[in-house]
């Protein structure tokens, strides 16, 4: 009995005079127990999980005895059983199942018709497949698959790139006016719009006004103010300025 105790624990005196239990390896018992649990922890493969679940389903031995023999906790077994009943082998392997996921043969159908009908958009191809194939597929799924297969057509630019300079350059003042509106936030007051009129040739700010909106009346008031300040109303019609605007919501 004394030999067994000496094999398990030796009491060594510390420098402070306190006695701490240690094992022959020089490690505390708690640390050695933790290391033994980690070393003895078993890794189960997919085949092991299926075999254990099937043995529990057959019921030849109680589940508690089965878990004790396999060194498995009961809650882990019942989690495997639930996954197996819900999704079969794929859930036991840890794979996430999607109820509306396309099967491999359906993906090949999408790929085949995408190659044979390159003129159809993703929405048109999805509608075409829903009408003629034996399965349903959404536009987003078709787009995701075509993108993964690098089959999405290259989008043409919506507009031509901006030129380095305007083709119709002004040659005098009051030939072309530009109007625009910029939004500002004034603390304690709220959002306001700075409506302005600018001469294109001289880049001079002819008139501006701070408005609460950008309706047609707000822009018309600023333009009328610029007309009164410059006196262009008295000029011949051919010398009166043209107005350039971005045709905003106002």
Describe what is shown at a glance.
This protein is an alpha+beta fold and 250 residues long. Helices cover 42% and strands 16% of the residues.
Descriptive notes:
- This protein folds into three domains: 24-97, no CATH class; 104-148; 176-244.
- It is α+β, with helices and mostly antiparallel strands and 250 residues long.
- It is 42% helix and 16% strand.
- 12% of the residues are buried.
- Residues 1-18 have low confidence and may be disordered.
- It contains ten helices and six strands, in the order αββααααααααβββαβ.
Structural descriptors:
250 residues, alpha+beta, 3 domains, two-stranded antiparallel ribbon, 6 strands, elongated, disordered N terminus
